[in-house]
Amino acid sequence: MTTQEVAARFHELAQQEKWFQIQDEFFADDVRSIDPPGSPYMGYAEGKAAVRQKGEDFVSKVREVHRAYTTQPVIGGNHFSVGREMDITVEGFGRIHIDEIMLYEVKAGKIVLEQFFY
What beta strand segments (E) does 23-73 contain? Predict the structure, then answer.
C-alpha cells in the first residue's frame, strides 16, 4: 500500500474511533511511538506490543469522552499527519483538552513511527 492508501484507510478507521484496529492493520513490528518530552500523559514505546500497551494504558484511564475529532490526513512523501482534538476526563488528571498533531511515517505499507505534538 502507498502512503496515500494507508492514510485513507487510517482516516476511515479514525472517524470510527477504531484506534486499535489501526494498530492491528498498519503498525510494523518495530513501530515507535513518541510523545513530547516531559508529557504528563504518555511517553515512548518501541515495538508493536509495547505501543499497544501504551495505548491500552491510556484508554483504561479515560473516564469520559466529551469530544473527539480527527482531521483529514495531509500527505507528504512517506509521511502523513492528522490533527486531533480531545476533550476527555482522565483518571488522575481530571478533565483535559488536547489539541495535537499526529505524525506517521510509512514504509512498505506499514506505519513505522507515530509521533505526537501537543
Answer: 27-34, 44-46, 62-70
Q: What's 71's DSSP letter?
A: P
pLDDT of residue 20: 98
Mean pLDDT for back-to-back runs of 10 residues, the chain (118 residues)? 98 98 98 94 95 95 97 98 98 96 98 97
Q: Position 72: which residue type? A: Q
CATH code of the domain occupying 3-117 = 3.10.450.50
Pick from 84, 99, 104, 77: which is nearest to 22 by CA?
A: 104
Domain boundaries, the chain: 3-117
The residue written with cell numbers 481530571 in the block is: 94
CA 100 to chain centre: 10
Placement of cell 488536547 in the chain: 98
